[in-house]
Description:
CATH architecture: 3-Layer(aba) Sandwich
Strand order of the largest sheet: 2-1-3-4-5
Number of strands: 5
CATH topology: Rossmann fold
Strand content: 15-25%
Number of helices: 5
Helix content: 40-55%
Order of helices and strands: EHEHEHEHEH
CATH superfamily: Response regulator
Low-confidence stretches: none
Shape: globular
Radius of gyration: 13 Å
Mean pLDDT: 90
Amino acid sequence: MQQAQVQIYGLEGVIAERLRELALAQRFWLRETSQFAACRNLVQTSPPSVFVFVLGRDVEKELSLLEQVHASLPGTKVIAVGEADNPALAGLAWDLGAAYVLFPPTPRDRLVELVLHLLPRMSA
């Protein structure tokens, strides 16, 4: 049986900790990075089931990565997390293939249930 993998980029604090706890409870592999080059390399060499990334720090690079993941890894579900209410940026993330776009005013704590929902159902 192959273990599900979730990769997160740029996510910190309480929500990242809750995802770590979820990974232990649900027995999936959680990979975290805060550096863009490392993130891009991980996605390409070890495709995740779910890819969560913060959108809005380096928009051009982040949107390019989203487009690349959507085009080359159709089985990977992408969740774009915004730091500020930005309908135009959220719409662009949807257009480029994000499975979910989580921007304020939607609370970030919804991310944990979204990840759980998107994880593939593994059978023994």
